[in-house]
């Protein structure tokens, strides 16, 4: 991995969430380099494994990881690693979580029940996290306190609305996570 000698702090951040929540889209919208994406066509082999009911128009899926880079300041660069969202790829999490300082957990408010397994993995690997509530076109924007309660989040867990297609919104979600990390790490 290339590290710019003028940058004093580089941070590995995971972008996580359930299948079809927008991890690849977020990294694509925010990365200052051409993102590495391991998107493959969804085939019949995924039948019985991947639930496409919440994302009927989805035709591709991440099979390994996504990678991007975002410089927040002269002294802070984020290396973004997007995890696959399907249960069958959770083995990738152990490798990707090594050295990660934190995670942005993306959730779809219409499929919150799919977020619990992801939150369990984030906590299992001891990652500090923030929640980005991704809003899809035509869906209701639920109040954050209702989403917090539905996910049973601690009062100090940051939670923000985001639109992963929008660069500014994606950046604000990551800034929220970085501010949370800085408040914990001092």
From TrEMBL:
- Is Nucleotide-binding one of the keywords UniProt gives this record? yes
GO molecular function ontology, one term from the record: hydrolase activity
**Transmembrane segment boundaries:** none
- Kindly list any coiled-coil regions of this protein: none
Q: Which InterPro entries does the entry mention?
A: Gliding_Motility_GTPase, Gpn, P-loop_NTPase
Q: Which Gene3D superfamilies match?
A: P-loop containing nucleotide triphosphate hydrolases
Its keywords, alphabetically, are: GTP-binding, Hydrolase, Nucleotide-binding
Is GTP-binding tagged as a keyword? yes
- Family classification: Belongs to the GPN-loop GTPase family.
PANTHER family attached to this UniProt entry? ATP/GTP-BINDING PROTEIN-RELATED (PTHR42708), GLIDING MOTILITY PROTEIN MGLA (PTHR42708:SF1)
Protein name stated in the entry: ATP/GTP-binding protein
Q: Which organism is it from?
A: Streptomyces apricus
């Amino acid at each position: 991995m290339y590290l710019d000698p003028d940058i004093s702090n580089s941070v590995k951040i995971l972008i996580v969430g359930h299948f079809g929540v927008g991890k690849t889209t977020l990294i694509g919208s925010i990365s200052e380099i051409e993102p590495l994406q391991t998107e493959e066509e969804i085939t019949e082999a995924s039948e019985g494994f991947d639930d496409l009911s919440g994302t009927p128009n989805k035709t591709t899926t991440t099979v390994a990881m996504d990678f991007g880079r975002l410089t927040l300041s002269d002294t802070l660069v984020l290396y973004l690693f997007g995890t696959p969202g399907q249960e069958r790829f959770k083995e990738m999490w152990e490798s990707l979580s090594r050295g990660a300082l934190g995670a942005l957990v993306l959730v779809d408010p219409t499929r919150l029940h799919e977020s619990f397994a992801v939150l369990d993995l984030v906590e299992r690997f001891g990652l500090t996290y923030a929640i980005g509530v991704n809003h899809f076109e035509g869906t209701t924007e639920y109040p954050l306190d209702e989403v917090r309660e539905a996910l049973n989040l601690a009062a100090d867990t940051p939670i923000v609305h985001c639109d992963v297609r929008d660069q500014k919104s994606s950046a604000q979600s990551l800034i929220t996570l970085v501010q949370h990390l800085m408040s914990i790490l001092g």
